[in-house]
Amino acid sequence: MNRINPGKLLMTKWSAVEPKRKERHFIVTGLVRNEEGTIIACELEAVINKNVYQVDWQELKDSTSWIMGWK
Question: The pTM is what?
Fold first, then answer.
């Protein structure tokens, strides 16, 4: 399980364990917050083609799907 501080999540690098559509490396380019200011999701931008995906930030804790950094 990856340990994540949601306040320091912006501009971090991540690698997908199982790439889809040849997209393996991602950068967190945005954070989605609720009315109280709590982070509920993040925007991951694929490095290879600049596609942006919104995922629940807690999914990044799953080390069977995501690895911190570019590996």
Answer: 0.90
